[in-house]
Automatic annotation (TrEMBL):
Protein name: Transposase
Source organism (scientific name): Bradyrhizobium japonicum
Domain spans labelled Transposase IS66 zinc-finger binding: 107-143
Matches recorded under InterPro entries: Transposase-related, Transposase_TnpC_homeodom, Znf_dom_IS66
Start and end residues of each Transposase TnpC homeodomain domain: 26-100
Length: 143
């Protein structure tokens, strides 16, 4: 706006200044919202591997603290170990179990052509949620 077209009345000038300030604040708010949209929370998220690196440091500090406690008071180590094992792998027995056996097709040895025999197996259980029904999937992997 050219300076010669400005009014001489101070009240009108104040009103014009306030209007320009309001417009400036509105435009600044729009810029902030656009920046938040462009560079906001989604852009600041980290990959899972990166977050695990940060947690690894915390776990190492906690492990060092537990090791120092074990060195000072060995009787506390037994109780902490017992607490860690509470309910590990103890899924309720009343839930139905569906067993899946993951086995090989050929039961003969590729070298000597003799019959293969089982030397053991790994067994894992995990809780599976079917809508309105719980069941346990048991996976066996013969060795």
């Amino acid at each position: 706006m050219p300076s010669d077209s400005l009014p001489d009345d101070p009240e009108i000038l104040k009103a014009m200044l306030l209007a320009e300030r309001c417009e400036s604040e509105r435009l600044c708010q729009i810029i902030k919202e656009l920046q938040r949209h462009r560079f906001g929370r989604r852009a600041e998220t980290q990959r899972e591997e990166q977050m695990l690196l940060g947690l690894e440091d915390v776990e190492q500090v906690a492990a060092c603290g537990e090791a120092e406690q074990d060195a000072r008071a060995p009787e506390g180590r037994v109780t902490r170990a017992r607490n860690r094992r509470i309910n590990r792998g103890a899924l309720p027995a009343h839930l139905p179990r569906i067993e899946v056996v993951v086995d090989i097709d050929a039961k003969t040895c590729p070298c000597c052509k003799g019959k293969l025999h089982r030397i053991g197996e790994d067994k894992s259980e995990r809780l599976d949620l079917v809508p309105a029904q719980f069941r346990i999937l048991v996976t066996r992997r013969p060795k």
